Amino acid sequence: MSSHNHPSPANDPRLPLAARPYKSPLVSPQDLPVDYSGFIAVIRGVLGVMFRYKLCSWLAIIFCAQSLANMRSIENDLKQISMAMM
Fold it and tell me: pTM for this one?
């Protein structure tokens, strides 16, 4: 067996004491990226209602659910979530 397969602890260049957990930076609500899935849900919903396309309506529901699942802000209240589902 060669020593290349199993490095010895004395030759390990990593420092376990220097490892720190990742802390995500704080971002203000104005600087958050645009919610494209919510925008697509609105467009598909309007197209589904105006032109009576069932596929657009189903895609709007799917994109709306995806947008609600990917919410990062806990500050959104029940009213905003219920209006999104309508």
Answer: 0.55
